[in-house]
Design brief:
about 190 residues, mainly beta, Porin, eight-stranded antiparallel beta barrel, two-stranded antiparallel ribbon
């Protein structure tokens, strides 16, 4: 039996919406192979910049948290072929089962390595971050943390890609509550 998923304040995804999203993803996946053969990315070259935006779901660790939402923007500089330094700023919000809010703002510095695979490029990402967390109970606190993850970039033209990423954010607890999470996002990145 499927339950209604809560995707953020006032946003609910019922079984019908989940099925529609799965059908849309399947159709996009079926349409992608012909387009993949036609694009040669101009990305991943030394001295190039890239800017991106992504949004998605955050899955906080610990009991009592609901799935929340996250957004972030980033800027990359390629220091070598397929190796970039990424700076990103993000914000995440989640509620607890008591309807209290948990928020996290972050500034992250990451090393990003792309694997050269043509129009679809997997990548790995890891680094350090400065976080400002506001737990459901207690005061706002600053934290240093680590993050690691990876994803895929699909180039639909030589300078623009659609991204999907899974990022593990590990940081110390606040007020005896976990502040770590697993984030699943999708976005767009442009190279210039």
């Amino acid at each position: 039996m499927m339950q209604t998923l809560r995707a953020g304040p006032g946003i609910r995804m019922g079984p019908g919406m989940v099925k529609r999203l799965l059908v849309l993803c399947s159709l996009l996946g079926a349409a992608a192979p012909p387009a993949l053969a036609q694009v040669t990315p101009a990305a991943g070259e030394k001295g190039r910049f890239a800017a991106g935006f992504d949004a998605g779901a955050t899955f906080p660790f610990g009991s009592g948290y609901d799935t929340g939402w996250t957004v972030d923007g980033s800027l990359d500089y390629y220091v070598a072929r397929f190796l970039a330094i990424r700076g990103s700023a993000g914000y995440a919000d989640s509620t607890t089962n008591l309807a209290d809010s948990f928020t996290r703002a972050s500034l992250l510095a990451s090393a990003v390595f792309q694997f050269p695979q043509g129009a679809v490029r997997p990548y790995a990402r890891a680094g350090l971050g400065v976080y400002v967390v506001s737990p459901p109970v207690g005061s706002t606190r600053g934290r240093l943390g680590l993050h690691a993850g990876g994803g895929l970039e699909w180039f639909f033209n030589p300078r623009t890609s659609v991204t999907g990423e899974l990022l593990l954010q590990l940081l110390p607890s606040a007020e005896d509550r976990s502040t770590s999470s697993l984030d699943l996002t999708a976005g767009i990145r442009h190279y210039f």
